[in-house]
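quick one before i forget lol
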Amino acid sequence: MLRYFYILILLVAFNTHATSWKEHKVDDPIKSGSECLVNNVRSFGGYVYDWPSKYDQIFFPYTSSLAIWFCNDSGFIAFIGDFDNITAAEKTKISEYLQENPPLNIKSLFSKLKLLEKIYSFRTLSAESSNTQKRVFAYLYEQINEFETANKFRSAALRDIYQLLNTDLATHKRLEYFYIAANYERQLGNIVNSKLALSRLLKEIESIKDDELKSFGNYLLNLSKETPFIEPGGKLAPLLEKDTTPKPEDEIYYLVKKFPEACHEELQKFFNNIKPMFTSHFNHTLIEKNIVELLNIRRVLIDTGSIPHSTLADYHRYEGIEPDLNEKGESWKSKSSSMCRSEVNEFYDIFLLESSRHIANVVSMIATELTGVKSNSDYKDTEITLEDIDQLLVKKSMFYLYCPAQDYDVTEYEVCPERSMPYKNIFIKLKADILKSPLKVNDRDGIQRLFAGFSSLDI
């Protein structure tokens, strides 16, 4: 009933359409003897061709910010794999610019795109490559809500497309360009020109004899059925259907709606007052299970060399939410109107039951990880089991010490004392314990980040 609200607090997400990358080093084309740490694609699937970038006819990996290669030493930047074929004259111009304007804090997608624009202004591309690049810029700027800039690139790409269509183009390029022109014209508000481009696309497809080209033409023809739904300005991708996923607020609304309409406003206010108390209790329960009790189990293992089943049983246990909320809940119930008092009492009882069940399920999920460690300990020695527990401890501590900072499709993690400060005493205990018995973890970077989190709390 209230699961959508609670599951957001847990912050668990799965991506079934994942791409993967692998870091590697390449030679810096500007600074001799220097290397650049960049990303190469490790894996992806056919699903990438159905992503919204298809309306720009731009596809992975160029839709990802990880496909932008940046050299920290020289400041050189380019799209993935585009570090070669730079002429001596281009290198000189780029080097001079970077020496006079050393890039600073090139981390966000916006800063990378701006630097890319400047560096590519010193390079010479073929007409078709330049057009593709403009569409990549348009798509990426759109992802960070820079719609005006995105549409400037689309306008420029559209002008290029009409010029290219007057040249000796391969058939598949003519088909692609007519499709893109139809989308861009409509997105720029030129409906008549969009329809004209679609009619020319259809005429081109009808004249094709080659089966492979015919198949590509039909693919574009099917996509073009969505072109009339493109709205001028804003995002290029048409809004074909609304998201019907229940929102957390909707879940509460549907619960409230079951009661008489005269009490709806009062029940909503009551929920708004008890929600912060629940959230606080939820977070406190999680950090106790994730860190405090895990720390206790770690100590038992160090001191005795094993983990008793009774200890695991305690780790699984969740006593319920009532003791933490009853006092304040009763106070708020007493303030309810006589007309809605019974409704408020019933609503509160339902809320407590659902909340308690949910946290019990979450605690069970948390405990499952440790149960796996315990099962593995039957054929592992104490040192290896301790290493498994310590890895869990570091991972779970990071969750409370660090917050995600999202920039388009890349997430970095930064210390966030405002989130972890309520649990400072727990982290004081954690630091003292691992100083007494050092973590059996080989991840030096992880340990450094853990202690950086402690420092953010002045521990």
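fyi The CA atoms of residues 108 and 130 lie 23 Å apart.
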